[in-house]
Structures are given as structure tokens and as C-alpha cells.
Amino acid sequence: MTVCIAEKPSVARDIAAVLGARNQCQGYLEGNGYQVTWVFGHLCELKEPHEYSPMWKSWSLSSLPMIPPRFGIKLKKDQGVERQFAVIKGLVANADRIINCGDAGQEGELIQRWVMQLAEVKCPVERLWISSLTEESIREGFQTLKDQSEYRSLYEAGLCRAIGDWLLGMNATRLYTLRYGSNRQVLSIGRVQTPTLALIVNRQREIENFTPEPYWVLSTVYRDTTFTAVLEEGQRGFKTKEQGAKAMADIAPLPFTVTDVQKKKGTEAPPRLFDLTSLQVECNNKFGFSADQTLQIIQSLYERKFTTYPRVDTTFLSDDIYPKCGPILRGIEQLYPTQIGALHGRKLLKSKKVFDSSKVTDHHAIIPTGVAPQGLSMPEQDVFNLIALRFIAAFYPDCRFDQTIVLGECGEWQFKATGKVITDKGWKEVYANEKAPTEEAPQSPDAAPTAGVLPVFKKGESGPHTPTLTEKTTTPPKPYTEATLLRAMETAGRLVEDETLRDALKENGIGRPSTRAAIIETLFKRGYIEKKGGKGKSLYATPTGVSLIGLIQNDLLKSAELTGQWERKLRQIEHHEYDAATFIAELKTMVTDVVKEVFARPYGS
Fold it and tell me: How far apart are CA 437 and CA 443, in angstroms?
């Protein structure tokens, strides 16, 4: 008998239907030589401190650091968990082979392997690895099963992550609570949550300590077009009103002369397909959805077979997906007849910005499966539309435009005006009746104003003009929203708009796409952050959160950049580029150093 272990009951039912296992039994389905059972999330967890040593049951500074010689796992104390585990253990005891049908990612691999370890599996184990739950995808997956040993590095990375969270969380939380909690509250510290909180606290301090400075912008209107004075690089405007007023007085009686007219043709490629983070960012910007809300919605769309696997960190498709794109588009054409209909009669574009197997490891970007959705809630419909329109736009040509830059002078001062007109909408036709994607980099407020179509200017022409001097004030950085915080987590706190550079920084991001929403939710639940301000989207640290970060002087605990380096090593373990044992040894050293550092600090400091 072949036993399949799925990630949850609904997925087990989908797999069983394809395999012909239609007989419902207690905790599993059976038929056609298969028994299909399931877990539901983590049935197992790492043992608690007191289960390694009785000395670690009570919280005391003398017991720190707590570093077990060997980590062990246990079954969660829950009647439902115990009942389902008993079913799994009974099935695998009599199995000829087992197929791991868990979630196709690091966490899913860890969940399944822990269950099989505790159930003492002895027979061969194969791995099902699929990116969607459609019948076609499941059938293809069972035709290309791999030996589970090929995914050992994925398990090792997940195990190292769990051990790292245990070592740092257990030790640092007890350490700071006992030393600084004043017996009133638990000061929770985590490997990813604390650097994330520090990002918010540091941004808050920047805002609170910001001193606005006035500056004055000189501009002039010539032939109904506003030209702005070009000052030294990095200079927004005149530092004093007197400087600006003198410049305006100097140019007022003089004619304005056009010194150069530059015309350039430009293109704008379709927006990238979605990974989980960019989808969460877009949904927060566009609909105000929290990161966790978006994750729940896209998980539901995946389980209902409408979209592909969601917990991904790439915006690319592998080359073998290209032949499937035509059928996918036809499957949803009834929902988007105009946008998809325009693609008829021509070969689908295959851009390197979309199809690049070298940028895909375990899973590709989030796309529709080709199954037309029915019975969606309004939020689900909103999210599906975002994904579908991005996918459709990927097969449209670039948007083309003409850009004009006009330079002028008046006395000793140089001026500039720019204009842009779209000559071929290209992919923007897809969004003719929709709001355009919001992830494009915002224009700097100090950039020269951009008009639509400028009048025709000729080099050397001259005439009267009307100068003005406008007072402006520097503005503080904006508070984080969930969208901008997700981007900061992805890039270890660096402000990056360029997508190519952002891709390079993902290796050092903190947390994983699948866990970042949970980290933010944890900060809310523990009272470290709150939402307030316009539309309730701005994130602020509470006094408790600010106080906690103020207590932590060790950068290893609160630096996004340093934590990102640890995350990179976890990814390297997953890809056979770093040794798991070395990583664990480094973790133990780090935790020991953190404890020593706090012990060495006088009380009250």
C-alpha cells in the first residue's frame, strides 16, 4: 500500500480524487492502492526547555544560556493532533512506500519530516512537488516523483531556522525579561521580530527628531510652460528667501531664451509578475489589506485551484511554463475578453523579463491556473484581478512614449521643463478600465515638473516670461505602512526602488515571504506596534515597543542587516552552499555572546 501525506484535509481530498482513493475512512481516504491522509499545520514542535533539563523549568539568569546538546521534537498537546497522528502512525507502519505531499516549500518539508520521524517511518519515501492543485498539475507531479533525499537540504534549512528561533527566542526573552522586565511583563525577543520592530522604532525616531527646513524654488512661466531653475546637484532650492528674491529680481527684466531642445523615445516594460511580497505590497497600497489578510486570500485562491502556489519569492516563470500560457489565457478569457482577445492572431511574446529559468528555484511567480474562478468574495475577486491582469499584461508589448526636455536660460540662471506623451500604450491597454499598478517608483517631489505635451520650442527662441518664487519646506520620512515595511524586510532595511537591485538584496532580506505577515501580526498581538493615521495604514511603535528596542544594545538582536546575513546563510544551506552544522555552531556562539554582553552590563544600564 502507498501512503500519501498531504498538508491539510482539503488538499488530501484533491489528491485522492486524482488517484482514485474515494473510500472515506477515519482520518484518511483509501482506494486504488493508495491511502491518502493529512496533517494540519505543525503537528510537532521542538521540545520546551524543561524537557531537556529540569533546571530549565524555572526562569533564572543562572541557567542561561540554555543550549541543548541535541534538539528533540514532540507532538503538540492537542486531542485533535494526537488523534490524527495516531492515524498517520498506524498507516505508515504498514506502508510499502510513502509519498510526501506536503506544502512544496521549506516549512512544508519540515512539518512532514518531523511527523515521519516521530512516526518512525522505515519504508522508502518519495516527494510530490507541484505548483498548483489542478488535476493536470497533480497528475504531472505523480508522474515525476523524486526521492525525498533530493530535498534534504530544504529540510536542513527549515530545521536550522527552527533551532535558531528557539535558541535566540528562548534565551533572549528570558534574559531581557529577568534583567529588565521588573517582574511585570515578558519582554519577547525574536530572531526576525525584533529587527522588524527596530525598523519601525528607528523610523519613528527619525520622524520625531526631524527639524523642517524652509527652501525657496525659483520658476518662471514662458509660453504657458513652467520652467524650474536648475541649481547645484542635490540642492532643492535656495536656502534663504533673500537669495531667491535676488535671483528673481535679476531675471525679471531679462528675456527668457531656449538653449536646447532634446527629444528622446522611451519604453516602459510591463510590470513584473507577482511574488508573495509584491502582491502583499500592492494589496496594501490599493485596497488597504494587511499582509496577513492578503496571504489568507491568495492561499484560498490556490487551494481552490484558481492560482498557483503563493509562498514564492520570484517574479519570473521558468521556460517550460511558456507552452502552457496560451491554454491558461483561454481558460480565463471569458472574464477578460477585451484584454485577451487583443492577443488573438499573434504569437505570445516571450520576454526575458518574464521567462528566465535561472531566476526560478522551487516555484515560479504567482499566476492564474486557467481555471475560471466562481463564487469569489469581493476581496478574493480583487486579488485575482491583480494577478490575472499582470499575467495578461506580460504578453503585451512595451508602452512607448516620446519625452521632450527643454532647457533655457535667463541671465546667469539655467531652467528646465520636461514633457512626456505616450505614442503606443502597449501593455497599459490592459489597464484601460483599471487603476494602474501602484508599485512604480514615485517621482521625487523636487524633480522638474513634467507636463503632458509641451508646445513646440526651438533652440534660440526668446521672449518675455513671468518668474515666481515659491516657499517650500523639507518633509520628514513617512511612517511605515505594511507595504513599505514588507519591502524594508525584503531588503534588510534599505530603501530600494530599482527592481533589479531589489532582487539582488532579497538574499539578505529578513524573514521569508511566507513568514513576514505572521511576524507583523505577532508585533501587533504583543502590543509592540499599532496602526493609526489616515486610513489606519501607518505603523507606529507603542511605548512598550520603543522601550524594548531602547533596552537592546546588541546589534545582533536588532539589526536588519545582520539578521539578513543569517537569512542568507539559511538560503545557502537550502542550495547546498553552506553547512548546517556550522550554522548551528555559529548560532550557539551568538547566543552565548548575547548573554555574556548583558551580564557584563551594570544593572540599570
Answer: 15
